[in-house]
Design a protein that fits this description.
The chain has 114 residues and is mainly alpha-helical. It contains 5 helices and no strands. Helix 1 (7-38) runs antiparallel to helix 4. The longest helix has 32 residues, at 7-38.
Length: 114
Amino acid sequence: MAAFPSPTTGALVFRTIAIAEACSWAGLLIGMFFKYVVVRNDIGVTVFGPIHGVLFIIYVVVTLVVARDFRWSVGTTVVALVASIPPLATLWFERRARRTGLFSGVPAVADQAA
Protein backbone atom coordinates (compact mmCIF):
# COMPACT_ATOMS: atom_id res chain seq x y z
CA MET A 1 0.00 0.00 0.00
CA ALA A 2 1.33 3.44 -0.95
CA ALA A 3 1.79 6.08 1.70
CA PHE A 4 0.60 8.93 -0.54
CA PRO A 5 -2.83 9.07 -2.18
CA SER A 6 -1.37 9.52 -5.66
CA PRO A 7 2.02 9.40 -7.38
CA THR A 8 1.78 13.13 -8.05
CA THR A 9 1.34 13.81 -4.33
CA GLY A 10 4.38 11.70 -3.44
CA ALA A 11 6.53 13.52 -5.99
CA LEU A 12 5.26 16.92 -4.82
CA VAL A 13 5.91 16.13 -1.15
CA PHE A 14 9.41 14.90 -1.99
CA ARG A 15 10.16 18.03 -4.01
CA THR A 16 8.84 20.33 -1.28
CA ILE A 17 10.86 18.66 1.46
CA ALA A 18 14.02 18.52 -0.70
CA ILE A 19 13.79 22.27 -1.34
CA ALA A 20 12.99 23.06 2.30
CA GLU A 21 15.91 20.92 3.52
CA ALA A 22 18.29 22.69 1.13
CA CYS A 23 17.04 26.13 2.23
CA SER A 24 17.48 25.20 5.89
CA TRP A 25 21.04 24.03 5.09
CA ALA A 26 21.72 27.40 3.48
CA GLY A 27 20.27 29.20 6.49
CA LEU A 28 22.40 27.14 8.85
CA LEU A 29 25.54 27.83 6.81
CA ILE A 30 24.81 31.56 6.82
CA GLY A 31 24.17 31.40 10.57
CA MET A 32 27.49 29.62 11.08
CA PHE A 33 29.29 32.24 8.97
CA PHE A 34 27.86 35.02 11.10
CA LYS A 35 28.58 33.12 14.30
CA TYR A 36 32.22 32.38 13.57
CA VAL A 37 33.26 35.20 11.22
CA VAL A 38 31.10 38.31 11.31
CA VAL A 39 29.43 39.10 14.63
CA ARG A 40 30.33 36.18 16.88
CA ASN A 41 26.66 35.77 17.74
CA ASP A 42 25.01 32.34 17.52
CA ILE A 43 21.41 33.46 16.89
CA GLY A 44 21.48 32.12 13.29
CA VAL A 45 22.67 28.72 14.43
CA THR A 46 20.16 28.74 17.30
CA VAL A 47 17.33 29.40 14.86
CA PHE A 48 18.34 27.31 11.84
CA GLY A 49 19.94 24.38 13.69
CA PRO A 50 16.69 22.84 14.99
CA ILE A 51 14.80 23.73 11.80
CA HIS A 52 17.41 21.98 9.69
CA GLY A 53 17.46 18.98 12.04
CA VAL A 54 13.72 18.47 11.75
CA LEU A 55 13.70 18.94 7.98
CA PHE A 56 16.62 16.52 7.63
CA ILE A 57 14.69 13.81 9.49
CA ILE A 58 11.54 14.50 7.45
CA TYR A 59 13.57 14.29 4.23
CA VAL A 60 14.98 10.89 5.21
CA VAL A 61 11.53 9.52 6.08
CA VAL A 62 9.89 10.93 2.93
CA THR A 63 12.75 9.58 0.81
CA LEU A 64 12.27 6.08 2.21
CA VAL A 65 8.50 6.21 1.64
CA VAL A 66 8.81 7.57 -1.90
CA ALA A 67 11.56 5.05 -2.71
CA ARG A 68 9.26 2.24 -1.64
CA ASP A 69 6.23 3.65 -3.45
CA PHE A 70 8.10 4.20 -6.72
CA ARG A 71 10.23 1.08 -6.37
CA TRP A 72 13.56 2.82 -6.55
CA SER A 73 16.60 0.59 -6.58
CA VAL A 74 18.72 0.34 -3.45
CA GLY A 75 21.44 2.34 -5.17
CA THR A 76 19.07 5.17 -6.09
CA THR A 77 17.69 5.23 -2.56
CA VAL A 78 21.19 5.39 -1.09
CA VAL A 79 22.10 8.27 -3.41
CA ALA A 80 18.92 10.10 -2.36
CA LEU A 81 19.76 9.60 1.30
CA VAL A 82 23.40 10.60 0.89
CA ALA A 83 22.23 13.75 -0.91
CA SER A 84 20.89 14.99 2.41
CA ILE A 85 24.40 15.33 3.83
CA PRO A 86 26.24 17.84 1.57
CA PRO A 87 24.70 21.31 1.52
CA LEU A 88 22.11 21.81 -1.24
CA ALA A 89 22.59 18.31 -2.70
CA THR A 90 18.90 17.50 -2.20
CA LEU A 91 18.17 20.06 -4.93
CA TRP A 92 20.52 18.23 -7.28
CA PHE A 93 18.95 14.86 -6.53
CA GLU A 94 15.38 16.14 -6.85
CA ARG A 95 16.14 17.60 -10.29
CA ARG A 96 17.91 14.41 -11.30
CA ALA A 97 14.95 12.33 -10.15
CA ARG A 98 12.51 14.40 -12.21
CA ARG A 99 14.79 14.46 -15.26
CA THR A 100 15.40 10.71 -15.26
CA GLY A 101 11.77 9.78 -14.64
CA LEU A 102 12.06 8.39 -11.12
CA PHE A 103 8.62 9.84 -10.36
CA SER A 104 6.97 8.66 -13.56
CA GLY A 105 7.12 4.97 -12.79
CA VAL A 106 4.07 3.02 -11.76
CA PRO A 107 3.87 3.11 -7.97
CA ALA A 108 3.50 -0.12 -6.04
CA VAL A 109 -0.16 0.60 -5.19
CA ALA A 110 -1.15 0.38 -8.90
CA ASP A 111 -0.04 -3.25 -9.07
CA GLN A 112 -2.04 -4.18 -5.99
CA ALA A 113 -5.22 -2.56 -7.30
CA ALA A 114 -5.15 -4.52 -10.57
